[in-house]
Structure formats: C-alpha cells, structure tokens
Amino acid sequence: MKPPDPTFWSGKRVLLTGHTGFKGSWAAIWLSRMGAKVTGLALAPDQEPALFIQAGVASLTDSLLVDLRRPADVELALVGREFDLVLHMAAQPIVRVSIEDPITTFASNIMGTAHLLQALRGQPALQAVLAITSDKVYANHETGRAFAEGDALGGKDPYSASKAAAEIIVQSFARSYFDKAGVPVATARGGNVIGGGDYSRDRLVADIVRAGQAQGVTVLRHPEATRPWQHVLDCVAGYLVFLERLATDPAAPRALNFGPRPGGPEVTVGDLATRAVQALGAKPWRHEPDPDSLEARSLGIDASLARQVLGFESALDAPAAVEWTMDWYRDQANGGEALALVQDQITRYEGL
User: Fold this and answer.
1) Cα atoms in the 13 Å half-sphere on the side-chain side of 298
2) Is 1 within a domain?
C-alpha cells in the first residue's frame, strides 16, 4: 500500500466532480484534510440521508451545484476559477437505474464527461485530469477471468455501455487536445466499492443497513455472483496516488484498474451479505431470483498494473472492508458524527 502524499496535495487547487455522492464525499474530506483547496461540482444529493449532508462536506469545499448535462452551466461555473488537478467522479452509478432510464444515464455519463473536458480546455494551469469509470467497462463473457487494462471494452447494460463510451470520449479529448498541451488525461476503473455513508438505491450494503434499521429482510437477486469488493478508502487512495503520478510523470499509464489484491479471498454477494447482517445483528437475507436481470454473474478486475507502476495496492481484503464498513454504521447508530467517523477511518487507514 502507498497512501496519498499530503505534501503533494497541500495547497493544490482541485476540481472534484461528484462531491455530493458517497465516494465523492470521502474524497472531498480526505483532500481537504491534506490541505487541498477543493472545488466541488455536482448535482444536489439525490437521496436522504446523504453523507454529503451528514458530514458537512459543503463547508469543506467551494461547493457548486451544477448539472454536467448542461454545457453552458458547466462553462459558466468554471469562469474565473483555475485548477491544478481534476478528479471527475460525477456519474449516474446504478445499473438498474440505467435500465429504467438509459437516456439520462447516457446524458450524465457520456455527454457530462464531454462537457466537462470541453470546459477544461481553457484551464491554463492544469497539470492532470483523472476520469473515473468502472470495472464494468469491459466486454464480459462470464468466463470468470479478471479483466486487465488491455481487454476489449463493452457493455450489455446502459450503465456499463455509458462508462465504456466515456473511456473512448476521454481518449479522444486527450489525443485531440490535452496531449498537445502537455496535460495527461487518464481513466481509472474501480471495483465494487463499499463503505460507511453509502445510502444509494440498489447498493448492497445500503440495502442491508436500511433493512436492518427497519427490522426487515434484505432481498438478494444473485447471491452467487462474484464482485471485486473494495473499501472506499482503498479506491479513493488509488485514485489520488494515480493523479499524483500523472502530474509528475509524463510516461504514466492512461488507464489503470483499482480493485482487491490478487490472491485474496473471493467473496460472493451472498457471502458479503451474510457477513454484513451478522455484523449488524440483522435478519438473514432472502433470495428472490430475477430472471430478466442483465447484471453480470462473474466480475473480476486485475489491479496488478497499479501495483507495478504506482507501488499501490489495496490494504484491506474483502472481509476487512466489510468489517470497517459495518463498524462505521454501528458507530453512527451509537451517536457518532459522520465527519468524525470518516476522519477516524482515514487516520486508521493512513496508519496501516
């Protein structure tokens, strides 16, 4: 594990899109803690509760509520502001939502990315841009093999397709504009992220927590499915370390996977749910098959290139990620303040 370098981030002007979301809130808190001057650009939180509100993330950032689907609004928001680094995390992130409303997902994830990159072309001090996509960008034939960066892109559901398309959008802007200006623009493909403060619809941990609070039962569609589970701190740490390298090394890769360490224990959806309900003292989960689901049964990601190039790998395996996540929710239920709980876990992570 190689944690982010506070001396690098101190004083850096960072544009963070998606700062009102789950991962974005963790990233905003960590960046602010390291002394970065963070400007957030995102829609207002779309669920209640929201970690962004609970942790007071707006007070830690220059928070701008802007719709990336509106190019004029994006351009206007950046007028008079200069940035050293950009971490683009804003997205419509839920597979089932994308199936219900594919056009909005495409508008957010594809055109939103294009609008942002177009607006960034006028940034004179820009050092690097990192756009976050997904482990689901790969053409998945359900072989069980972990995907590496050179594998073909694909997408059999609108969310996956939108993120694969965003990869191509990023590459096209990089080659057409940013490479000529000496500004590295890259993508990061993260695994399935869990952590405290996630309340999103159709997210496994959030569903378990909600069911536990209501004394209900969590329903699983595919308990046998495998996923590259990763704690939010491992994922965000990888992004930040990658951005550090992009800003200082012109030869840095333009795409990297971030996921669990190879050789770690494989944890199915059912395994993770069992660990989570036991940790919370909730009722056992129930299986209700969904024969129409387009979700992949097998999904693995090969993060060895990040280890080779950056010296970075996840510090927490899947069981530890579940433990840290459930600790957060239990501590919050016992009266802990969300910001303090995030800060405490960052401190603990940095000390590993």
Assistant:
1) 9
2) no
Using CA atoms, how far apart are residues 73 and 308, in angstroms rounded to an integer? 40
- Say how many domains are in the chain: 1
Task: Report angle CA 18, 21, 25 to the nearest 5 degrees.
Answer: 90
Q: Following CA atoms 310, 311, 317, 322 in sequence, which dihedral angle do they give, to the nearest 10 degrees? A: -50
List the CATH number of the domain containing 78: 3.40.50.720
CB atoms within 10 A of CB 10: 11
Closest CA to 65 of 84, 91, 39, 87: 39
Q: Where do runs of H (alpha helix) occur along 281-337?
A: 304-310, 318-333
pLDDT beyond 70 at 295: no
36-59 tens-digit pLDDT: 999 999 999 988 899 999 999 999
Instruction: Confirm whether 313 is domain-assigned.
Output: yes
CA distance to 47, 121, 221, 223, 275, per residue, from 288 (Å): 25, 48, 5, 9, 19
Look at residue 135 and tell me if it is in a domain: yes
pTM of the model: 0.94
User: 136, 147 in Cβ contact below 8 A?
Assistant: no
**Where do we find the tokens 């594998």?**
151
C-alpha 109/C-alpha 257 separation (Å) is 19
List the one residue out of 191, 189, 208, 188 whose CA is nearest residue 199: 208
Q: CA–CA separation, 150 vs 111, rounded Å? A: 24
Backbone angles phi, psi at 106, to 5 degrees: -65, -40
**Residue 139 belongs to domain spanning:** 6-350
In a domain, 245, yes or no: yes
